[in-house]
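A.,

Following up on our hallway conversation. Structure tokens first:
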């Protein structure tokens, strides 16, 4: 019997499925019986059917716009937190329709990859991320990136430096011959930049696990550090006052925005390389040149970093790689599908207003970019020198920061202190007692995370813990003890942040002598 499927991407434990292409009703019914959680069927426009779809089948027109497709796929993925869906392409897809379904299949796989990575990240590093958020909280309140920086590099060249393997070849080429550029560097490039004698104007670091020490020497802290609230705290400690924060996809920042602390218009997203490119765009240069932005593994596909970063021993060990368009070959392989997809989409958008030049002898194609091989660098130097002015930063502009102070700061800190005390109220007795029954620990965590305001405030911790203590889950007593201890540490860090935010003496007195809850 011939298979009804042209291709299948199976997922162990899957209870949901995404089906692409026209199907016989009997096949659709069979899939609905097998995948009880839900079926998303992306197909041609509906035709009259002799019988209604099974109740768990969600139908979507394949000709829907990309936003509708993305939103529907993302919503469907939320049906099952623990297992990704199986994906199947119908054998009834004709040759004329292959291109249409290929692009949809790419979107589906990219969405699953991005969602799974986000879930793994939240589960594996959620507690660490929340700890970093509260370590950075005082700085975020006092020193966010201001709008006054926007457009400050008009008429200039911006160079964005990523840490991909091609940087070994291309970094030495940018030191001389170009009009003095604005340099925005990803954190992993610092050691290479120092050895090359290039001082970046901005250094972007948004990874909660990547410390300053792993990227360069302790005394090397050039320019201004652009951080997220989830950045490793060593960056703010080393740069001192020369830091600015970007908002991002962080629940605690959403909570603050709801209390009157608006997010920055530029957001820290996905990875340091992409964030650096967006920072460069924010400054409004006439042209952006990308260096070391490979978005694909070098060598045999396992090389992630250039040799000159001192991080080349950290190689890629991915179970799944994807073939994507290459700069100098038809395709290249990458495990960073969502990174490449988001970077390419942003590159296409940015290139509508200015030239985006990708100086690269390898790597993945970024839509809208002009790919220049290093052998053509002399021609590039001449062209840019004729059209762009040297970058001359305005120290007054870059002394600006977005901050909250005075009564407004005290009001926000009072709300934070109130939620902190509410969390402590029943936690302290649990931690003080011995042999606390499992059901009491579980009840406390469920009630705490059931409080939407507190759950949003401690967002990444909540995302890490909720799947473990939700209905039907039975964690062990040791597992709950671990989560309670982590919560205690997070609340301590929040209390430290209240003091570090430099509130009024009146608030400090209340904090040290009163209970806010």
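Then the amino acids I'd put at each of the 517 positions:
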């Amino acid at each position: 019997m011939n298979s009804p499927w042209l291709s299948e991407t199976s997922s162990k434990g899957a209870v949901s499925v995404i089906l692409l292409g026209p199907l016989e009703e009997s096949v659709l019914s069979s899939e609905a019986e097998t995948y009880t959680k839900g079926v998303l069927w992306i197909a041609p426009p509906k035709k009259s059917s002799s019988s209604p779809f099974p109740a768990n089948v969600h139908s979507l027109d394949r000709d829907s716009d990309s936003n509708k497709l993305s939103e529907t796929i993302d919503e469907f993925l939320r049906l099952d937190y623990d297992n990704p869906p199986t994906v199947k392409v119908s054998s009834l897809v004709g040759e004329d329709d292959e291109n249409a379904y290929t692009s949809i299949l790419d979107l589906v796989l990219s969405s699953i990859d991005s969602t799974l990575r986000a879930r793994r990240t939240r589960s594996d590093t959620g507690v660490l991320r929340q700890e970093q958020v509260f370590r950075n909280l005082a700085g975020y309140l006092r020193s966010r990136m201001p709008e006054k920086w926007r457009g400050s590099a008009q008429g200039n060249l911006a160079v964005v430096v990523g840490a991909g393997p091609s940087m070994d070849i291309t970094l030495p080429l940018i030191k001389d011959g170009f009009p003095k550029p604005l340099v925005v560097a990803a954190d992993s490039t610092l050691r290479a930049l120092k050895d090359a004698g290039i001082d970046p104007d901005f250094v972007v670091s948004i990874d909660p696990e990547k410390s300053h020490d792993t990227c360069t020497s302790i005394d090397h802290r050039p320019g201004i550090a652009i951080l997220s609230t989830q950045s490793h705290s060593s960056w703010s400690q080393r740069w001192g006052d020369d830091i600015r924060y970007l908002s991002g996809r962080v629940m605690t920042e959403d909570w603050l925005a709801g209390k009157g602390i608006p997010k920055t218009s530029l957001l820290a997203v996905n990875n340091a390389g992409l964030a650096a490119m967006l920072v460069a765009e924010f400054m409004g240069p006439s042209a952006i040149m990308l260096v070391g932005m490979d978005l694909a593994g070098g060598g045999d596909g396992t090389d992630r970093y250039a040799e000159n970063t001192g991080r080349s021993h950290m190689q890629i060990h991915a179970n799944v790689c994807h073939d994507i368009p290459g700069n100098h070959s038809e395709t290249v392989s990458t495990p960073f599908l969502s990174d490449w997809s988001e970077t390419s989409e942003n590159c296409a958008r940015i290139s509508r207003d200015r030239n985006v030049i990708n100086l690269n002898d390898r790597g993945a194609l970024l839509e809208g970019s002009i790919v220049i091989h290093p052998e053509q660098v002399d021609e590039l130097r001449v062209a840019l020198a004729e059209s762009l002015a040297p970058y001359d930063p305005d120290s007054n502009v870059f002394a600006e920061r977005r901050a909250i102070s005075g009564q407004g700061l005290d009001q926000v800190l009072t709300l934070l202190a109130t939620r902190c005390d509410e969390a402590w109220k029943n936690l302290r007795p649990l931690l003080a007692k011995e042999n606390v029954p499992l059901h009491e620990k579980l009840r406390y965590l469920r009630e705490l995370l059931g409080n939407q305001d507190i759950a949003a405030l401690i967002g990444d911790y909540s995302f890490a813990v909720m799947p473990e203590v939700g209905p039907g889950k039975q964690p062990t007593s040791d597992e709950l003890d671990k989560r309670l201890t982590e919560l205690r540490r997070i609340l301590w860090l929040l209390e430290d942040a209240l003091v570090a935010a430099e509130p009024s003496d009146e608030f400090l007195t209340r904090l040290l002598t009163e209970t806010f809850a």
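The longest strand covers residues 38-43. Curious whether your intuition agrees with the design.

B.
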